[in-house]
Design goal:
With 185 residues, this protein is α/β, with parallel strands linked by helices. Helix content is 30%, strand content 25%. Strands 5-4-3-2-6-7-1-8 form an eight-stranded mixed sheet, covered by helices on one side. The longest helix is centred in the C-terminal third of the chain and has 14 residues.
Length: 185
């Protein structure tokens, strides 16, 4: 907590972002305990299903996960929030519109142009990792998700990476161990 406050006060930037993993997608809201504050910050959500889909065909709490997190971020005044998802085609969404792209590189290029230099990367890999259901048809593969995470790490000043998955999955996606990797429940 103190480290997060110091980072906020001194607008701390690092080439090695803090990596936090929730033990389960139901703990996704714990991202709020780690979010950096301040101007000039974008949130990029990698959400492997469309906003109107529900993991396992059920709701999380009273809302589908995506709708719940959209509400959380808008409540905390993060107006610069972008969602990258794939459900047969790649889609980039913000609070105003959705745009479809044919290739992963096209959507990543547009995302880099649209976002601030400082970003939070919120990875919700539930379809790939937790729920091999019919909703996974057409979603991002593990390889596409890993490529996306590492592309953003190379092209933006990533302040925080939050995985709604265990640390083993985060390490698989990152391709290396981060000393700042925290697992929370």
């Amino acid at each position: 907590m103190v480290l997060n406050l110091l980072k906020q006060v001194f607008n701390y930037s690092s080439n090695s972002p803090e990596v936090v993993c929730a033990l389960s997608p139901k703990n996704h809201h714990l991202i709020l305990d780690y979010l950096p504050r301040g101007e000039g910050l974008s949130i990029i959500r990698l959400d492997n299903h469309s906003d109107d889909s529900k993991p396992c065909g059920m709701s999380c709490f009273a809302f589908p996960c995506s709708m719940y997190m959209n509400d959380v971020f808008s409540k905390y005044a993060y107006s610069n929030v972008y969602w990258i998802s794939k459900n047969t085609e790649f889609v980039l969404s913000d609070y105003k519109k959705k745009t479809s792209f044919k290739t992963l590189n096209d959507i990543l290029s547009e995302t880099m142009n649209a976002t601030e230099e400082r970003v939070v990367l919120d990875v919700d890999p539930d379809i790939v990792f937790d729920y091999p259901t019919t909703f996974s048809k057409g979603s991002m593969t593990n390889e596409e998700l890993k490529y996306t995470v590492n592309y953003i790490l190379k092209n933006k000043d990533v302040q925080l990476i939050f995985f709604a998955a265990p640390k083993e999955f985060a390490q698989k996606m990152l391709g290396k161990k981060y000393k700042s990797l925290v697992e929370t429940s």
